Structures are given as C-alpha cells and as structure tokens.
Amino acid sequence: MDNVLVLKDYKTVPDIVHEYEPTLKFGHIPLVIDNGSYQCRVGWSINDEPHLIFKNLIARPRKDRCKKDAEPPVTPPIQIGNDIINIEAVRFQLKTQFDKNVVTHFEVQELVCDYIFSHLGLDSDGCVPHPIVMTEAFVTPNYSRQLMSELLFEGYGVPALSYGIDSIFSFYKNNIGDSGLIVNCGFHTIHIIPVIRGKVISEHARRINLGGSEIISYLHKLLQLKYPVHVNAITMSRIEEILHEHCSIALDYQDEVKKWANPDFYDMYVKKIQLPYVQNTSSSTLTAEQQKERKKEMARRLLEINARKREERLAEDEEQLQQLLSIQDLIEEGDTDEFEEAIKTFDIKSYADLQRQIANVQGRIDKNKQRIAAAANPEEVEVRPSGRMQPPQDPEAFQTWLAETRAKYSEIVSRREARRARRAAMVRRRTAAAAERMRVISRLAAAGDEFGNQDSDWDVYKSISREADSDSDADGERLLELEEALREHEPAPSSSLHHQLHLAIEPYRAPELIFQPSMMGNPEAGLAETMEYVFKHFSAEDQLLLANNVFLTGGCSQFPGLKERLERELLEMRPFQSTHKVVMAGDPSLDAWYGARDFAGSNDFESCCITKEDYYEMGGEYLKEHHASNKYYRSPPPIVDNTLAPAGDANVVKEEIVVDC
User: Fold this and answer.
1) Mean pLDDT lowest for which of 63-72, 165-174, 364-373, 411-420?
2) In the predicted model, what is the mean pLDDT of the chain?
C-alpha cells in the first residue's frame, strides 16, 4: 500500500493585542496563567477559552553585523512565544525560564510576563490590578516560589496571588471523585501523585525525569541516524509534527517489533513521509536534439581531457628517458665516478636496474604514442560500437539489455576500485601486495643478482611502479560509453523517492521511552514499575481506591494507545480478579487551565490568595494551602556557626578612628 504523507510544516501566527474592556478593568477579574514548560496558557476567569496559547520560549536573534547601528533592525531584538515565526532559524538562540519543570531563570520569566500583559492590552502603567492564579510544579522549591512572588508583587504590583498544581486542577476539573492516582505526563517530567479522600499524599508521590522533550529528541536522533543524507531536513519542528500526528504507544512493544520484522507487514503498513525538495527542471527545458548535442559536447570534452593527460604523461616519460639514457652514456664513456653519483641521485642501485627502468619507460612512451595517434584519427573517434550500445525495440529485450549494461558498468567500476586498492597497498611497505610484487621482480632478475634480498630494494620498486595505472585508460573509455548509454536510455528515478522518510517501528519506539527509559540510557524505572512501587506504600483498601481511578493528564498523555497500555499493565500488576480503571482527561492539555479558571471563580478563591500584606509579613516563599496547592513547609532558619568567631575579651581595648573625608 503506497501511503505517502506530506508534512504540513505548521507556521505560528503572531498573537493579537486583545482589548482591555471596561468590565475587566474595573471588575478586578482574576487572571489565570497555566505556566507550563511546553506551552503557556493565559486568560481571564470569565472566559471560556484562554486568550493566549504560546510556546514558553524566547529568542534573541543575532545582530546583523552588515548593518550599521543607526539602521533599524529587520527583526525585533527579542522574540517571544508566537512572535517566533521561523523557530528553526533561531533554534540555537532559544531560551526558556525552566530547568526541567521548575522556573529558575527569572529574567526570562519577566520577559514572558511582559509579553502576557502587553498582549492582554493592560494599560495600567506597569501595574497589574488583578488577582492572579498561576500553576506551578509539584513540590516546587520555596526559593523558586519566593522569586516568582517577588517578581509579581514588586515588579507588577499584583494585589493577590494564588498558586496551584496543574495536574490537581485538571483532576478536580473532570469531577471523577476525591481519590485516585494522577499520572501527569509533562514536557520534561512524569509525576505519579496519589490522592486519597481529597488529600494529596506527597510523601509517596514519585517523579520520572522524562517527558515530551526527551521523546522528541530521541525520535530526532533515530531518524537522523537512519537518514544521514537528510540530516538538515529532519528538523525538530518536523519531528514534533511527526510525534503529534503519527506516533502511538504499542500494547505489546516486543510483539510490535516482531511484526515489523516481516517484510510483507512492513510493505503494507509503513508510513512514508515526504520531505520538501526542489525538483531539478533544467533538463526538461531542453529539447531532445539539444540534449543529444549536449551529450556529444560532454563526450568531446572528456576525450580532449584524456588526450591532454596522455600528452602530459608522454612529455614526462620522454624527459625521464633522456635522463636515464644520459646516465647510460656515462658508463659507456667509462666515467665510473659520475655514473655512481648519478644513480644515487635517481635511487638506482645497479646497471641492471637502470636497464629495466629504461625498458619500462620506453614501453610506456610507445603505448602512449599509439593511443595519441588513435585518438587523433577522426574515424577512430566517431566509430562507436553502435550495435552493442543501441537498445533493442522490444520492451522485454530492452529490460534485459538495460540490466546487462548496468552489470557491465558495475563490473568495470568494481575492477577500477580493486585496481586502486591494490595500487594503494603497493605504495605501503611491508604489505602482502608489496611483498608479492617484490618477489616477482626479484625472480625476473638474473640468477646471480641479489635484487630483492635487501629491504632497500623497495626504493627501486617504487620507481618501477610509477604510472602503473596506464592500463586503466581502456576501462575509462568503456565506462564513459556505458555511462552515456545509461544516461540516455535508463528511466530517471523520481526525486521524490529520494526525499522520503519511512516510518516503521520508530513511531512506537520513541513513545516507548515512557515505559522503558533505559532505551535512551536513563537508569530510572518506567511508568508501570513506578506505579507499582507507589501502590506498595498503601493498604489493600487504598490501593483499590487508587487503581479504580487512574487519571491521565498532561500533553504526553494524548498518545494513542496509552490508556490501553496502562490497563494492560494494571492487569498484570494488580491481584487476581481485582478491579482497575483508567480515566483520560477531557482535554489533557487545557484541563489544567480550565480547573484553575473554575477555582478563580469559586467562593473560596479570595481566602486562598496571598495578599501583598501577607507577602511582606510572611516572606516571598509563603503559600496559602488549598485543595489543589502544594503543601507549605517553611524553610528552616540558616545555621550560624559561631565556633570560628573570636570569644569576647573584657581586656580588649576599643579605639575609635575618625577619618576626615
């Protein structure tokens, strides 16, 4: 089944600046901010949907050095959220305020808050006269909450502030009871939070340091390793699209792997992702006659290049022959001293070696002259083995001829590669090929000659093997003929086929990290093992309460098959004939904001807020607890070590020094 899918390459749309209506301005309507590590969702408590949904990222594009300082920049110096139109262009300049799921970089958080308040249309001179409900991570450190409260109270003048856990807000939004096991699959972490009779049992909650970010990165590496040619086209944005659109969780991963090992199953169910590519249309604009003339011109140029190379080799060989003959004349003239000095200069060991080199060079010269003369004859150039290169008209015979031509082409290419490898081995000393060559050369010498017994004879061999590749010229010309025939008659492959990603087991392998983090080298336990560990901390009665209400929320819980996989895992880990139930959030991505919105509109909201007076009196880490909040644990006072301080001495004389400024 040919199932080719096209990537949509979604583009972000910049957020509009909303109108700050009088009902909002004078009604002190609470503002709800779901400050997620992947997306930030912002809206008023009286709205049905959030006004702003954007990725919690900022980018500082590099300044264009070609422009002068006086010229206005083409792009804004800081891009936030949906203002980042082309995220791949600034991928390496992206920053986030989060470390995992905890806010730690508050200079970035301040820029995000500026973006939020400006796009909501607030015109209150830097002040935000609205109570704020903000989500935070489970068991957020006091120091992080202190800096967030400091930013909102002192930086923006917020009158009241309340914090809550996103997954708890989502749990109560779905009205599924007051007991359950919350599985919050986030962008960087997975939290398993038990809730018994409305009380969060935080001491038995567990966190897995893995989420959507790690799954995206893992799938990105898988496809880049599988298709190294398309490493630049496989971007993180496209991987996100593939993850959201095509990935799912297998009910039995090992069984799924066995299925994809079957070639028939692969051909039937593989997903082919078409990458964007530019079609080469240069050849289609030429007529058949123009293409034929172009091929002839290319062939003529190649012949000219080969002829020029032969002439250069011929000139070098003739020069070398003259030098060797001049050395031979020295011995005939009886000038022994100059002869010995000359053969040392040319790395020649004996008169016999000189004769062999003269014969080899003379043979190369004769062969090159014959080839140059043959190439100069126009009849020789134009004559082609047309009977061999002309394809038959019958379709079946044409396919046979095409296969034979490909086989001949591959054979010549293999022979040429083998020749190059053999030549490279001969250049290196103490290889098997070099030793065999030395043995043959030494056997060709006279019976009384000691050539080949000494290691220094290698230098003579190197000079003999010079230009030994002249025998490959015929193969080169034949290769050119075959290339022209294949280029002319072989059907051109479709360029789209070379720009496709085949997704087989990869859409199941990447989300499997949720259950097997060890696949990416993470030593932590998977989701099923961690849930089983949490169950063991409760009595059988409480375990039944938790197992009958396993609640899935968070963006990564939207993988198809996750609910069915968890039901299967619960069936394996729970006692025989015990019951269990897995409940999916109505909207795993937005239910946290919906729950916080409902909380902001409840009658208990004002009593659960931290006022500015509470902030100044109790400190920035102070938190008023409610049903969806973290527990407040006051930070212990700092330990002061007085052992190093000098003991008081009554005999110490104090002297006051006055310095005139």
Assistant:
1) 63-72
2) 85
* Per-residue pLDDT at 325: 83
Q: How far is Cα 182 from Cα 170, in angstroms, rounded to an integer? A: 10
> Per 3-state DSSP, what percentage of the chain is helix, strand, and coil (rounded to 5)?
50, 10, 40
Domain ranges for the chain, please list them. 22-174+593-618, 212-270+504-584, 283-497
The answer to whether 56 and 36 are in contact (CB under 8 A) is yes
- Of the candidates 582, 558, 589, which has an alpha carbon nearest to the alpha carbon of residue 248? 558
On the CB side of 565, CA atoms within 13 Å amount to: 24
pLDDT at 491: 62
Give, to the nearest 10 degrees, the angle between helix 166-173 and helix 591-600: 80
Which of these, 534, 611, 524, lies nearest to 570 by C-alpha position? 534
Q: Quote the DSSP letter at residue 14.
A: P
Establish how many alpha carbons lie within 13 A of residue 434's alpha carbon, considering only the half-sphere containing its beta carbon. 15
Separation CA 476–CA 411 (nearest Å): 12
The strand order across the sheet containing 31-35 reads 52-55, 39-44, 31-35, 132-136, 160-165, 610-611
Task: Count the neighbouring beta carbons within 10 Å of the beta carbon of residue 9.
Answer: 11
Could you tell me if 609 and 591 are in contact, meaning their C-beta atoms sit under 8 angstroms apart? no
Q: Which of 279-283, 402-406, 546-550 reaches the highest mean pLDDT?
A: 546-550
Long-range (24+ apart) CB contacts under 8 A made by 433-440 are 434/458, 434/461, 437/461, 437/465
β-sheet bridge partners, residue 87: none
Residue 466 has pLDDT above 50, yes or no: no
C-alpha–C-alpha distance, residues 322 and 342, integer Å: 13
DSSP-derived 3-state class of residue 581: coil
CATH match for 212-270+504-584 among 3.30.450.20, 3.90.550.10, 3.40.50.1820, 3.30.420.570 = 3.30.420.570
Per-residue pLDDT for 628 more than 50?
Answer: yes
Residue 252 CB partners (closer than 8 Å, separation 6+): 568
Of the CA atoms within 13 Å of residue 84, those in its CB half-sphere come to 24
Q: Which fold has domain 22-174+593-618?
A: Nucleotidyltransferase; domain 5 (3.30.420)
Asked if 22-174+593-618 and 212-270+504-584 have one fold, the answer is: yes
For residue 252, give the DSSP letter. S
Question: Please, are residues 239 and 545 in contact by the beta-carbon 8 Å criterion?
Answer: no
Q: Is the dihedral of CA 210, 214, 219, 225 positive or negative?
A: negative
Phi, psi of 433 (to 5 degrees): -65, -40
| Residue closest to 318 by CA, chosen among 353, 369, 269, 280 | 369
> Could you tell me if residue 367 is left (phi over 0), alpha (psi between -120 and 50 degrees) or otherwise beta?
alpha
